[in-house]
Amino acid sequence: MLRYLFIVLLFFITLHGFSQPHHDTVKTSVFKLVSKTDSSKVNVRSFKKSTLDIYRKLPEFKYNDEVETPSWWTRFWRWFWGLFNFSKLKPSAGAFRIFLQCVKYLFIALGLAALVFMILKMAGVDMSYMFRRKSTAAGLAYNELLEDIHGVNFDEEIEKAVSQHNYRLAVRLLYLKSLKQLSDAGLINWQP
User: Fold this and answer.
1) Tell me: the pLDDT tens digits for 3-37?
2) By the 8 A CB rule, do 141 and 173 touch?
């Protein structure tokens, strides 16, 4: 469906592009630009000295020109980004300058990727399937959820699974047998 929408959109874009008139058939008109001089009268006003003195005494109009020293955090980031400031290089080193700019953006991209990775890890996202296929689930011929482990003869079922070369089921049955033994010994409280 999306493919058909793309084709229709492409058709209308090209139709609009080819339907433009040619430049030789379009008549252009030339307007004369005329600049007008400003002849309005300007009234020059000035402040009263007494009013200015009143405002100078108010604390709202006293501005401090003191420059605060930057914190260690700000100084650290200035130093860090100064490492990637390649504008001080001479223009004669053109290829080297381009290489350093590429390295700068590579480090920034790696830093962002590391930040995204840490956020996803902290959020608990499983990223193992991001670059590979999800493995297919193997179905077991034995369903342990529907039966009680106390009613199954595990030795007989394990022998049957081994004779059929179904070792995965045999290991599963050994696990369930160990759960039954732990439950019989009273070490765990197994519930179906």
Assistant:
1) 666 676 666 666 555 555 555 566 667 778 888 88
2) no
Burial track 137-164 (b if 16+ CB lie within 10 A, e otherwise): eeeeebeeeeeebeebeeeebbeebeee
* CA atoms of 175 and 158, how far apart (whole Å): 11
Residue 91's contacts (CB-CB under 8 Å, 6 or more residues apart) are: 97
Are 80 and 104 in contact by the 8 Å Cβ rule? The answer is no
Identify the CA nearest to 179 among candidates 192, 170, 188.
188
* Nearest of 69, 107, 67, 113 to residue 85 by alpha carbon: 107
DSSP string, 54-97: HHHHSGGG----PPPPPPHHHHHHHHHHHHT--TTS-TT-HHHH
d(CA 90, CA 92): 5
Q: Under a CB-based contact definition with an 8 Å cutoff, are residues 152 and 183 in contact?
A: no
Alpha-carbon gap, residue 131 to 117, rounded angstroms: 14
